[in-house]
User: What shape does this take?
Amino acid sequence: MSKALLNSNIKDDFAIFEKKILNKDLIYFDTAASAQKPKIVINEINDFYNNHYSNVSRGVHTLSVESTFKYEDSRKKVKDFINAKSDNEIIFTKSATESINLVAQTFCERYMKQGDEVILSIMEHHSNLVPWYFLREKYGVVLKFAMIDEEGKIDLDHFSSLINDKTKIASITHLSNVFGTTTNKEIVKICREKEIFIMLDGCQAAAHNKIDVQDLDCDFYVFSGHKTYGPSGIGVLYGKENILNDLPPYQGGGGMISEVTLDSVSFADLPAKYEAGTPPLVEAYGLGIAIDYMNSIGIENIMLHEQELSNYALKKMKELEFVEIYGNGNEKSSIISFNLNHIHAHEVASFLDVEGIALRAGHHCCQPLMRHLKVNATSRISFGVYNDIKEIEVFIEALNKCKDFFKK
Ligand SMILES: Cc1ncc(COP(=O)(O)O)c(C=O)c1O
Assistant: This one.
């Protein structure tokens, strides 16, 4: 066994692998859609509800203080996880999608006027397209789209050529959920030189790479807890403190105010300013536990493990002449998209489900990219800490069976 691979008994940390799928062992190759949850995360969430739960920041009684401590402690864990400078730079939302909407709307309100420009790319997830389309519809903001190269990476020359005096912000995926390619951090340098803001969509990167927002120097960074072994219903927005201070509030409600009279309102300081209403406190706590879990394995070790799995899967898949892989490079950070000749991706996914293999088929919320690739859908495998080489061998065998089955 390669030294880069994690010990295979890591599966024991996850109750889901005790389940059989149609009498087969579960092979979960859908971590890019959502990661499975370690027992420790589920148990700690139960413990929170059973022994500590109350609303946060509102009471002086013991349970409220305990809940508030746990909630704020998670913020510190997220801050350290992505190496932000201050807790004030970490805003809890319900998802990465909500984080992107928050930035798009508040940024537009504060810094943009009709005719100003935003740069996205043709391979963005719908969550990093549609919030900007709203601005185009409502305020006449102009959207421009960076092209990609053959590997499935942003074409930085094209990206750079799109920037002009009207460009205010770029919002780009840090790791493609279709190709598994990472955006070169050079992109931030370009934005700094041209004096525009940049947001990175780290949904796919955060569970697989060491994220250092100070080193990246991006203005905003977003990700979702459920893709990083945490619960659903929790998202993260990182923003540089001076920028978040400068932006207007997003939603109004309890918790985000300093003072309310019948005529006026003043707002709380960061991070409360962006956390209107009762926050997803248990979910935030669960994310903190998931971060502890990843740290206990070591994010470097997770990266090496998934790299090894991706390299092996890619090599084996390339040996199959009936498989087309999207993005022709060798960098596939835990995600590989493909099609089998003449077999629809949904049929592949259904066939493999019967073999106990969970993978994703569809447009992956990237319809503009699918159009660019001239396909309706692809199949996609993606890896997490619990996957191993043996599972890839079962998968390769299943692909062969699938091809034979549909030939009949
Ligand atoms: C690259 C990327 N961005 C954004 C999202 C949206 O994340 P969520 O649905 O958790 O808000 C996803 C989810 O698949 C994603 O892969």
